[in-house]
Amino acid sequence: MSPNLTLAIMAGVLFGCGVTLLLSRSLTRALLGVLLMSNGVNMAFLVAAGPAGLPPIIDKAEAAATRIGADGISDPLPQAMVLTAIVITLAVTGFVLALAHRQWQLASTDDVADDAEDTRLQELAESNDLSGSDYTDTADPHALADDEEDVLPPDPVTMADHEQIVPEDLDPEGAR
């Protein structure tokens, strides 16, 4: 039996809506985004687990003859992973609720304000001003401005040198 396409699409929709809400400035929307994402991941785990089977609770006498799969018991690993994900989601929910409550106490809003340093860096990036950065060469955006003493000397061993090394060269004073 193939995985249920409807559940797979629903898991993707939940995760996509969660990402959209998580990118919001409101902590309440971010919390709802985390919850939707976690539910989408849990649903994806269950879709990936395969078809439903018998409960994975058996006694020792039946353990040797029991199959995991379509006609046997369901795989307990995805169920354990979903249970772990639920506990982690509960902890993250409590943390984000504490952040939202503290933000509400301080500013009477749950919107996250712009950081002054982030605003300054955004203005510098928009004006292409490199005065406060480590880059001095504007022609090469990947070149860092290093002092001469900080630059490492070039590697004296080249690939041609590696090809000329023979095992006798590695054996000091004929230790064999």
- How is the biggest beta sheet arranged? none
Using DSSP, what is the number of strands? 0
Distance between the termini: 63 Å
- As a percent range, the share of helical residues equals 55-70%
Global morphology: extended
- Structural class label: mainly alpha
The low-pLDDT segments are none
SSE run: HHHHHHH
Rg, Cα atoms, Å: 29 Å
Helical region count? 7
Q: What's the pLDDT, averaged over the residues? A: 77
Q: Classify the beta-strand content into a percent band.
A: under 5%
Verbal overview:
With 176 residues, the chain is mainly alpha-helical. Helices cover 56% and strands 0% of the residues. The chain contains seven helices and no strands. Helix 2 packs antiparallel against helix 4.
How would you summarize this macromolecular structure in one to three sentences?
The chain is mostly helical. It has seven helices and no strands.
